[in-house]
Amino acid sequence: MTVPFGDFKAHVAALRGEIDAAVSRVLDSGWFILGPEGEAFEDELAAALEARDAVAVANGTEAIQLALEALGVGPGDEVITSPLTAAFTALAVQRAGARPVFADLDPATLNVSPEAVARAMTPRTKALLPVHLYGHPVDLDPLLELARTRGIPLVEDACQAHGARYKGKTVGAISGIGALSFYPTKNLGAFGDGGAVLVNDPDVAGRLRQLRNGGQTDRYHHVTAGINSRLDELQAAVLRVKLRHLAAWNERRRAVAAIYLREIEGAAVRLPEEQPYARTVYHLFVIRHPRRDSLATALEERGIGTLIHYPIPLHLQPAFAALGGKAGDFPVAEKAAGEILSLPLYPELTDAQAREVAASVRELAGRA
Predict the structure, then answer these.
(1) pLDDT averaged over the chain?
(2) What is the model's pLDDT at position 321?
(3) Is 186 among the domain residues?
(4) Which of 213, 229, 280, 285 is spaced 20 to 30 Å from 268 by Cα?
């Protein structure tokens, strides 16, 4: 049985009627930027994810950048984040003019370790930017306490964690502000790029709306140096349709993950560990194996798609060479980067496909 890593055709087919109606509504309106679809999506998103407000932007990178800028983070400041995440997290820090500083990980969750974050803090630390990696919440309470003690904000990178919960609360705005990405592969994905900032402070929300639209207070009146980061009406309309299905999709992801956890248990791999404080939404189902590349090749030969999220820690990426990172700086992240392997997991995956993946991993992991 062939099991692709993702299946966008099946995803679109299940929604085709709703999507066609939403797109037609926008086309008939003749309004394509900063219109009623975007406003309605912001209201619905904030309500669904338990935030006071949501400000839609062009992508997740700019959601992080603008969140930092709206909080006053800029040149000369440091922002502590994870070395094991999409590079766009740290790139957003740089685009805000600040310096990303990395902290090593909790080996159980591969989220940043609060103890490592505390060690990384300096007088120049002006924000914390933990990542809810793979859809599993960061242990926020100790990080929020660090931020409170220092009088600095904590921005949640919830780009992979739409609908995940920490101690019963939906992540993204538990800290007061957080960033989302609507890249097509996300749990809530657009048919293109998109992003949003969840925010609980109306003044910060106002600054975000100004910054995303060139720093304008009204048309042609630019009072600050903003950027052009606006979610278009077509994507907003699509996301409004998909938002209605997010909770069900997340439950389906958890059901597929339960099959994997049950049927791979005992194999020569390390499985993800949901912590007692967390309700993960399994944006990715990531196993660990000491000979990851051999296992990936063997699964590919079986027709099972896999990917690696992420093979090179950020402190070893050429784009961040100026930060002075070197091998050995973050041993947990570096070890994980050589072992992690993402298995297929999406709402359209059937139980039979999930069992096929699990059986193949169980059989092949000991040989790889």
Answers:
(1) 98
(2) 97
(3) yes
(4) 280
pLDDT digits (tens, 9 = 90+) for 218-272: 999 999 999 999 999 999 999 999 999 999 999 999 999 999 999 999 999 999 9
Cα-trace Rg, the chain:
20
Residue 170 φ/ψ, nearest 5 degrees = -70, 130
Residue-range definition of the domain harbouring residue 209 = 8-103+111-243
- What are 72-96's pLDDT values in tens digits? 999 999 999 999 999 999 999 999 9
pLDDT of the residue at 367: 79
List, as one string, the DSSP characters of 225-290.
---B---BHHHHHHHHHHHTTHHHHHHHHHHHHHHHHHHHTTSSSBPP---TTEE---SSEEEE-T
The two three-digit tokens of residue 45, written as one number: 């998103």
Which of 223, 243, 263 represents a domain boundary (last residue)? 243
Of 211, 243, 275, the residue at which a domain comes to its end is 243
Q: How far apart are CA 286 and CA 345, in angstroms?
A: 10
Helix (H, G, I), strand (E, B) or coil at 199: strand
Q: How far from 112 is each of 66, 149, 201, 253, 330, CA to CA, in Å?
A: 22, 18, 26, 24, 11
- What is the number of structural domains in the chain? 2
